[in-house]
Amino acid sequence: MSNPFKNILLYIDGSESSIVAAQLAIVMSKEFRSALRVIYVVNENLLNELLKAKIFVQMEKMDYERDLEEDGKRYLNYIVKLADRKGLKIETILRKGVVHEEVAREVEECGADLLVQGELGEVLSLRDSFYEAGERILRKVICPVLIVRGRDKVERSYEDA
Amino acid sequence: MNLVDYIKPENVKLDLEGSSKREVIEELVEHMAETDEESDADCILEAVLKREREGSTGLEKGIAIPHAKCDAVRKLSIVIGVSREGVDFESLDGKPAHLFFLMIAPLSESGPHVQAIAKIVKMIKLETFKNKLIKAKSGAEAIELIRRVENGEV
Questions:
Q1: CATH annotation of A7-160
Q2: Shortest CA gap B55–chain A (Å)
Q3: What is the ipTM score, two decimals?
Q4: Which of B54, B110, B152 is closest, CB to CB, to A122?
Q5: For B40-98, what is each residue's pLDDT tens digit?
Q6: Would you kindly state where each structural domain of chain A is located, as residue ranges?
Q7: Chain A contacts of B67, Cβ < 8 Å?
Q8: pTM of the full predicted structure?
Q9: Between chains, do A54 and B149 touch, taking CB under 8 Å as contact?
Q10: Between the CA of residue A142 and those of A121, A134, B123, what are the distances in Å?
Q11: Which residues, at least 6 apart from B48, have a Cβ–Cβ distance to it below 8 Å?
Q12: Domains of chain B by range and CATH?
């Protein structure tokens, strides 16, 4: 059987669960000898919504946008180090915009055959489930999606890899 | 992120006494400094007032989310305040504000701050939640309500 996952895309948002997802993506990439790309998206849409709702003023929104971009770079660098520890070279992508749309675009552009992401966040109600980025990504992308749970097991796999 | 990881019962101040915007902000900031020993009230107050000068954080339907970033706190700090009488907070709809969320984040922690604000904005759209929170009889009751909403139980 040929390798089903030649090109893996990992989506991170800086949460603990996305770090767990990163560990499993690294293990899988080593195992399947897949190329691994990792993407972080500055949630520009959310900032715009907070601006529109008058919670942020324009200057403040721009300030937060810069901060989130810096956060994104920091998170991506951390994943690079995690991969490096296992002798894996990965590519990082930082985008701005509507999170699920940017992730879906990257899936298409890089021809990902698997998207890996952390577990879905809690939702306030069924109606609100569509607000959660992870949930929206799941519904939007055209490739198989792996939602990673089971932190302890994944951490052991990563340590053993 | 879960709000209940950042708010404890002691971070809830029911029955705010202030009758003006400035007084309520001072009261909330003072409460934050009392419950978070590592925070600096003067520095927080200055940051919040500076932000308010750029535009009021009084929203509609009795809600205000005064917020700022400053290194007077070590992690995202939140205080919830309730004014039974209501206070003129220069809100968007011109109506008195009853429910306040003071949110202060360190300069280096914007991600959780933005997420927390967005989450609160979503939660307060639930009228039932908002009304129950305003009527909460204790900090513990308020936190339990938030926990239940976060878990999708309300």
A1: 3.40.50.12370
A2: 7
A3: 0.81
A4: B152
A5: 899 999 999 999 999 999 998 899 999 999 988 988 999 999 999 999 999 999 999 99
A6: 7-160
A7: 55
A8: 0.81
A9: no
A10: 21, 14, 31
A11: B25, B29, B66, B67, B68, B102, B104
A12: 3-149 (3.40.930.10)
